[in-house]
Design a protein that fits this description.
The protein is of the alpha/beta class. It is built from eight helices and seven strands. It has one domain (about 1-199): Rossmann fold (3-Layer(aba) Sandwich), CATH 3.40.50.150. The protein has helices spanning about 1-15, 15-25, 30, 40-50, 65-75, 90-100, 110-115, 140-150, and strands spanning about 55-60, 80-85, 105, 125-130, 155-160, 175-185, 190-199. Strand 4, helix 8 and strand 5 (about 155-160) form a beta-alpha-beta unit. The chain starts with a helix and ends with a strand. The relative contact order is 0.15.
Length: about 200
């Protein structure tokens, strides 16, 4: 009996996140954007491109099952300065259990300014966008971009991951500069990380 419990616990720890992610993707594919969580390889590429001062926070849009969140913690971002925004209640509950100390903000990224604790508004070094921006209409992209820049100091950039060949944002129409800063074929599907900043 104990062997069965131990086996179930191991399965939950290893296959559980992927199965949960797939389940939530099946429930709402346009919100999830991918059928699998970000790989460790992609999470490391993202973490390498995060910039923040010691007193600044990092905000992640689309925490999912926490693969990027864990890479950020491993790279040295303190849990007390890491905020993960997740719109899916089941994934938000999973994140709270799996990455204690990280603040999980359950809601729409277009409301980040009102969800983020006031002392951190204007003190966010990097925002990481893990939601499928490429699938959103221009108005929604504009709304999210405006919210991002409202919580960051002037002159900063934000990061966005994508499985598309090109940039995940219509950046010229949004008045942004863009640069692909990372790529990993080890992700399923292969993924790129882009940086965006105001012109």
């Amino acid at each position: 009996m104990s062997l069965a419990r131990d086996s179930a616990a191991i399965f939950e720890k290893t296959a559980g996140p992927a199965l949960l992610f797939l389940k939530r993707w099946m429930a709402n594919p346009l919100v999830m954007g991918s059928i699998t969580p970000s790989s460790a390889s992609l999470a490391r590429v993202i973490a390498r491109n995060v910039r923040r001062e010691e007193d600044e926070a990092v905000v992640e849009f689309g925490g999912g099952t926490g693969s990027v969140t864990r890479a950020l913690l491993e790279s040295g971002v303190p849990a007390s300065r890491l905020f993960s925004v997740e719109i899916d209640p089941e994934l938000a509950a999973y994140l709270r259990r799996e990455v204690p100390g990280v603040t999980v903000l359950e809601g729409d990224a277009r409301r980040i300014r009102e969800m983020l604790p006031n002392p951190f508004v204007g003190k966010v070094g990097t925002v990481i966008v893990g939601i499928p921006m490429v699938l959103l209409p221009s108005e929604a992209q504009q709304s999210i971009v405006d919210e991002i820049f409202s919580i960051m100091p002037k002159g900063r950039r934000f990061l966005a991951l994508t499985y598309a060949i090109g940039a995940p944002l219509k950046y010229e129409a949004l008045g942004l500069n863009a640069k692909r800063v990372g790529f990993t074929p080890a992700n399923i599907p292969p993924a790129s990380v882009w940086a965006f900043w105001k012109r």
